[in-house]
Specification:
Elements: E1 30-33, H1 39-50, E2 54-59, H2 63-69, E3 74-77, H3 83-89, E4 93-98, H4 107-127, E5 132-138, H5 148-160, E6 166-172, E7 175-176, H6 181-192, E8 195-199, E9 205-206, E10 209-210, H7 211-222, E11 231-234, E12 240-241, H8 242-252, E13 258-262, H9 267-277, H10 282-290, H11 303-306, H12 314-326, E14 357-365, H13 369-376, H14 389-401, E15 422-423, E16 426-432, E17 436-441, E18 448-457, E19 462-471, H15 475-502
Parallel strand pairs: 1-2, 1-4, 2-3, 4-5, 5-6, 6-11, 7-10, 8-13
Antiparallel strand pairs: 9-12, 14-19, 15-16, 16-17, 17-18, 18-19
Helix pairs in contact: 1-7, 4-5, 6-8, 8-12, 9-10
Length: 504
């Protein structure tokens, strides 16, 4: 039986830059990675470590949990919207990767947050005399009527370049890889639907790129000083329409799909429909779907002069992503950074008063503690919730209908679990081997909620306890608690019975 583990993620992460034609820089100084908890940042870190660079990573909060994943790396808590925190984070830094992106806040909110963060970063980086900033932006023709998302990416790059620090900008279209939002949208549309509506803008051209190629370019430009102060378009081998991507994936999955052309101009409504049948929630699908109205193709290939290597095709990228998922080796996922404020969320241990609303259920078991804990950590995702799974799914459907994360978000991988991992509409707040699993709710609620699984050794057997904690200060919040309280007995009692039953 596999052990839960907090081993360094990068030990088994399958390095992508082994065949990179560039050479690691000597005396590169300390490198800061912002957005370290995100999809790209989490994959860039192990590559830079393996190539011998001195790394500092920047997260917005809860750095103790990140130390479990990166015990040998300097970690600093800072928010790019806070000048003082940024000043500390950039002390002694030579090069910074700017991978901050607030797209998950939604169309109306991310623009202002992103622009202010970029302004602050540029200002502080100039004051700290950084040598370089490396930024991953979005591909799009400035002369065209860009979506809010792509326009914002360009505005961020412009803010970063207003200072005196040399900025290297890499502009990419959609990124395909295990755990990427774009891949999960396309894959799930094809897998789950017998027919797919194809709006006219789905025939616009795009040049998708594999996540492994993105990482190689991010590392490569660092190791080629001549790329400082330059801007590059990066893309994969193929230029194809979104319609063609869906057809290609249908062939890979050997699934017959009926494609229906339609005059569908309401992108937000289409994005909402996509969010209901894929794991990716509406705020993200809205941003991505809005970008479909623009053709995003590389205007120049000058990056090949500095970092020459053969990029992957869309089919190759997709097959690699599918293989990673089948092998349960998804190392980072879009959900790692969604909701965007999860790092700053109130923790159960931070409540300085006893939560008034709680319910607890226990059973005794003669199963060994290790086996019980293993079963606890299997909950959610494809395995479901063992007993009464339909109730959990129904609650998830309601949440997704309200544009929340829902249970469709699932899990990044089966095992092992680590702090900050996602389980449906929960996030792992704390985990102690063979003792405790504490989950924090991320669904829409008129309050804050936690679900705790605890194991205790008795004289002759083990005690398994599940406790639901709920904190609210509103009339509606209290009404919500008492409305669902009668269902707790069936839900939680059945849940721990299911855990005990599955344990060997």
């Amino acid at each position: 039986m596999p052990e839960q583990s907090h081993d360094k993620v990068y030990i088994n992460s399958g390095l992508r830059c082994k065949d990179l034609p560039t050479t690691p820089l000597k005396n590169a100084g300390k490198i800061l990675i912002t957005g370290a908890s995100g999809y790209i940042g989490g994959r860039l870190i192990p590559e830079l470590i393996a190539r011998g660079y001195q790394i500092r990573i920047m997260v917005r909060g809860d750095s103790e949990n990140y130390k479990n994943d990166w015990p040998d790396i300097e970690i600093v808590e800072a928010d790019a919207l806070n000048i003082d925190e940024l000043s500390s984070a950039l002390d002694g830094i030579d090069t910074a990767y700017y991978l901050i992106h607030s797209m998950q806040l939604g169309i109306k909110q991310f623009e202002d947050a992103d622009i202010l963060a970029a302004k602050n970063f540029s200002k502080v980086a100039e004051g700290k005399k950084l040598k370089r900033i490396i930024y991953l932006g979005g591909l799009g023709d400035k002369r065209s009527d860009l979506s809010s998302h792509l326009k914002n990416r360009i505005e961020v790059s412009e803010e970063l370049t207003k200072g005196n620090v040399a900025v290297t900008i890499l502009n990419a279209a959609i990124i395909i890889g295990s755990g990427s939002a774009s891949y999960e949208i396309v894959y799930n549309l094809v897998k789950r639907l017998p027919f797919i509506i194809i709006p006219h803008w789905a025939n616009n051209k795009c040049q998708p790129i594999s996540v492994r190629d993105v990482i190689k370019y991010l590392v490569g430009v660092l190791e080629v000083p001549e790329t400082a102060g330059k801007q590059f378009d990066i893309g994969g081998k193929d230029i194809l329409t979104y319609h063609k991507m869906l057809e290609t994936l249908a062939k890979i999955l050997n699934k017959k799909i009926t494609f229906i052309s339609a005059s569908f101009d309401t992108l937000s409504l289409y994005a909402y429909g996509v969010s209901m049948v894929t794991p990716v929630p509406f705020p993200i699908t809205q941003c991505l779907i809005q970008g479909l109205k623009n053709e995003v193709v590389c205007q120049n290939n000058s990056i090949q002069k500095y970092v020459p290597f053969e990029t992957l095709t869309f089919k190759e990228s997709t097959l690699r992503a599918m293989t990673r998922e089948e092998q349960d080796q998804v190392y980072t996922r879009w959900s790692d950074a969604y909701p965007p404020a999860h790092e700053l969320a109130l923790k159960l241990k931070e409540i300085n008063y006893e939560t008034k609303y709680r319910t607890s259920y226990s059973i005794n078991s003669d199963k060994i503690m290790k086996s019980l804990f293993y079963s606890i950590c299997e909950i959610g995702g494809k395995e479901g919730w063992f007993e009464s799974s339909w109730m959990w799914r129904l609650r998830g459907k309601i949440d997704r209908t309200l544009t929340g994360v829902g249970t469709q978000r699932g899990r990044k991988s089966s095992l092992p679990l680590r702090a900050n991992d996602v389980i449906d509409f929960w996030r792992v707040e704390s985990i102690e081997q063979n003792k405790l699993l504490l989950l924090r709710a991320e669904m829409f609620l008129p309050g804050k909620a936690w679900l705790e699984f605890r194991l205790a050794a008795l004289s002759e057997n083990q005690e398994l306890t599940v406790t639901a904690y709920y904190d609210t200060h509103t009339v509606w919040g209290r009404a919500y608690w008492y409305l669902f309280l009668p269902f707790h007995y069936f839900i939680f009692k059945n849940l721990i019975k299911g855990i005990e039953k599955r344990s060997s």
